[in-house]
Write a structure and sequence with these properties.
By secondary structure, the chain is mainly alpha-helical. It has helices spanning about 5-40, 45-70, 75-80, 85-115, 130-135, 135-160, 165-170.
Length: about 170
C-alpha cells in the first residue's frame, strides 16, 4: 500500500470513528433527556422516533467503521486452509459479492429516497423520512470505500503462503 493510500485509510478510519462517537453521544443525550422528561411527567413526543433513527444511523455507519477495521465476522482460517492457488480466487469472489451487495443496496436505497420525500416523521412532521433513510445509500457508499481500502491487505494475505497453524493463536485471541 502506498504511503498516500495508507494516510487516506487512516484519515478515513478516523472520520468514521468520530462520526460513530458523535452518533453515540447524541443518542445517549437524547435517551437521557427522554427518560428525564418522562420521569417528570413531560414526555417528549419525538423521543422514541428519533432514538430509533439514531440507532439505525449508528448501526449503518458503525458497519462501515467495522469494515475498515476488518471487524466483521469472517473466516480467514478457511481461506488460509485452502490451497494457495484457490485463495486469491475465493477472496476475489467474496469481495466481488460484498461490493455487488452494497452497490445494489446503495442504488436501491437511493432510488427509494424520492418516494420517501413525501412521507414525514409522525412526531416531527417537518422532517421528511427521506432524510432519515438517506443513511442507507450513504453508508453503502462508505462501506464500499472501506472495503476498497482494505482490499490490498486482503489480496496480500490471500497471496501469502502462511500456514494455517501460524495464525491459529492470533485467531483464538479474537
Amino acid at each position: 500500500m502506498t504511503r498516500g493510500l495508507r494516510r487516506f485509510r487512516v484519515a478515513y478510519e478516523r472520520f468514521l470513528e468520530y462520526l460513530v462517537i458523535l452518533l453515540m453521544a447524541v443518542l445517549a443525550v437524547e435517551v437521557t433527556l427522554g427518560v428525564v422528561f418522562r420521569t417528570v411527567g413531560q414526555a417528549l413526543v419525538w423521543y422514541d422516533e428519533i432514538a430509533s433513527v439514531l440507532l439505525a444511523w449508528l448501526t449503518y455507519y458503525g458497519a462501515a467503521l467495522a469494515a475498515i477495521k476488518r471487524a466483521h465476522i469472517g473466516f480467514p482460517g478457511l481461506v488460509r486452509s485452502l490451497k494457495p492457488a484457490l485463495r486469491l480466487p475465493v477472496v476475489l469472489l467474496a469481495e466481488a459479492l460484498v461490493f455487488a451487495f452494497f452497490g445494489l443496496l446503495g442504488w436501491v436505497g437511493y432510488s427509494v429516497l424520492e418516494v420517501l420525500a413525501t412521507d414525514f416523521l409522525v412526531s416531527l412532521p417537518s422532517i421528511s423520512v427521506m432524510y432519515t433513510q438517506s443513511v442507507i445509500p450513504l453508508s453503502s457508499a462508505l462501506f464500499i470505500v472501506a472495503e476498497a481500502l482494505v482490499l490490498p491487505e486482503l489480496l496480500r494475505e490471500a497471496r501469502g503462503g502462511k500456514a494455517v497453524e501460524d495464525n491459529l493463536a492470533a485467531e483464538a485471541s479474537h
